[in-house]
Amino acid sequence: MASRLMWASRAAASRLRISTLVHPRLFSSSEIPKELKYADSHEWVRAEGKSATIGITDHAQDHLGDVVYVELPEVGAAVTQGGSFGAVESVKATSDINSPVSGKVVEVNEELNSSPGLVNSSPYDKGWIIKVEISDEGEMNNLMGPNDYSEFCDKEDAAH
Amino acid sequence: MERMSQALSWVLLVLRDQGPVIRRFSGGGTVIVDKDTVFVTFICNKDAIPGLQPYPRPIMSWNSQIYEHVFDKACNFQLRENDYVFGNHKFGGNAQSITKRRWIHHTSFLWDYKIENMAYLKLPTRAPEYRLARSHTEFICRLKDYLARSEFIDKTISALGSHFSMEHVELEPSQQSLAADFVPSSREITMQEMEEALAELTSEEPAAYSLSK
After folding, report:
1. Could you say which architecture CATH assigns to the domain A35-159?
2. Is the pTM of this model over 0.80?
């Protein structure tokens, strides 16, 4: 059998033009929901005591494009802060979704099975993805508030 | 209803011909691959490319610039929506998977194809705008008609080499280094699953069912 060869490369220096296309944001910084907390991987969490609702932000859905499928976890599954629990599939890409908090999944948004586009059209409301029973409320201190998250997004877009 | 009929006819064809179907972990639509298909995959850490945001469009745009150095200007190579085309004929499809720390960008190049295999692919529900409802044979082209296979591979490696330091690696030893408990998420769809899909589709559209051998 002929050897199958794999080329590995290390980026010593890239002289390729990097796309500077900046997607217009649908939500201005003043419209980022004030009551939510945000992860640097662009998920949001709405916490009410030990109950948390989680989704992806408008920034994330805008960059991912039209969502065609959402891979949801099983109810009862454990999630950890920063760990992947599912995926969002847009037209040509699947992207992991990471949990902003640790705990147990108590509900998933079944509506997304028939209407995955809710993640695009209503990222902070009808496009919610999972609900979690939080195991460590102190982890919320690791997340960003709306103003810090807005600055984070602006810096991220400006740096590229 | 039309979408259901298309799905039903596809399932019927696959069951009739017993062709293997693989569900891959990355995004993208259905492709027909054979022994001639050329696959080029980039697996990168999140910060591997300075200034590149790990999102679909920036990755797609960056990747297309590699191939601008592979094809002659006369080929009119372009990235159109998410496809690699010569003019308005597609010869390469793309798919990606993006995690928190890494991303993968994968291109399937249509080196050659058999017309009869295109029967498996109906006009997709979500088609690129530039396709303009063309049939598959009017929409795609064969990469082999534009340059020799060795030339394509050599020029692609050369294009990469002008931007990255390259190292030739044997694949088999790398496969051995995979963790013993690694379970690939891409997998072959079983005939039982296809039959279950058929049962589900025909329960919703019984009048359209017909399996001819």
Report:
1. Beta Barrel (2.40)
2. no
Candidates B100, B102, B108: best to mutate against A (most CBs of A within 10 A) is: B100
Give CA–CA dist B128/B125, Å, rounded.
10
CATH 3.80.10.10 holds for B25-185:
no
Instruction: Give the tens place of pLDDT for each residue, A73-114.
Output: 999 999 999 999 999 998 878 999 999 999 999 999 999 999
Of A16, A95, A156, the CB nearest to B62: A16
Q: A8 contacts in B (CB within 8 Å)?
A: 166-169
Question: Which chain B residues touch A16 with a CB distance below 8 Å?
Answer: 49, 62, 65-66, 163
With beta carbons under 8 A apart, name residues in chain A contacting B165: 9-10, 12
User: Residue B52: CB partners within 8 Å, gap ≥ 6?
Assistant: A18, A19, A160, B58, B59, B62
Burial class (CB in 10 A: 0-12, 13-18, 19+), A36: buried
ipTM of the shown complex: 0.75
From the CB of residue A146, how many other CB atoms can be counted at a distance below 10 Å? Answer: 18
Q: Work out how many CB contacts closer than 8 A connect A with B.
A: 125
Q: How far apart are CA B143 and CA B37, in angstroms?
A: 10
Retrieve residue B129's tokens.
């705008």
